[in-house]
Design brief:
Length: 169
């Protein structure tokens, strides 16, 4: 298990997270690994992350379900330097994970890896692009990076694939 610091406001840490921490952590994920909380299987979690990256590149388009008058307040979460609480229930997801899209965990991981690379390249090629997040509304590159950092970090902790740094001794 690797130790990954959490600081959503550190752009260099977020870049390193997408460049290698995420992929490094996922190398130890196995099909039968139980979550510390929630009902997702490892493959559900990977496909869920893939889905969110597809939203961020415009591959999938969804409406925002948050009323416009609340968006500014809801987006504060992206700047709040605290991880997503364990056991958080996304109000847009059902009680049961959706059907799986891929035949194997390896296939889902390969698709996620490709989509993370596509996410990075997409905003390098189109730095002014905005894509709708179903909760936070239209997001640009930095806000999508913040959302993905918090989201991925949460799910890596969920499956015990990373550890937060402990207090200084």
């Amino acid at each position: 298990m690797i130790i990954v610091p959490f600081d959503v406001n550190d752009s260099a840490l977020r870049a390193a997270f997408f460049d290698h921490h995420l992929a490094d952590a996922l190398t130890s994920l196995a099909d039968r690994r139980p979550p510390h909380w929630g009902q997702m299987t490892p493959r559900h979690m990977v496909e869920h992350l893939l889905w969110s990256f597809e939203c961020s590149t415009g591959e999938i388009t969804l409406p925002c379900r948050t009323p416009e008058r609340l968006l500014e307040r809801v987006k504060e979460f992206l700047y709040d330097n605290r991880p997503t609480p364990r056991g958080y229930k996304n109000p847009l997801l059902g009680a049961v994970p959706p059907p799986l899209r891929f035949q194997s965990l390896a296939d889902a991981l390969a698709a996620l890896d490709r989509e993370v690379i596509r996410f990075i390249g997409h905003f390098m090629e189109e730095p002014g692009a905005f894509h709708v997040h179903p909760i936070f509304g239209p997001l640009g590159a930095e806000e999508w990076q913040r959302a993905h950092f918090k989201h991925c970090y949460h799910h890596l902790l969920q499956f015990g694939l990373i550890r937060e740094p402990g207090p200084e001794l």
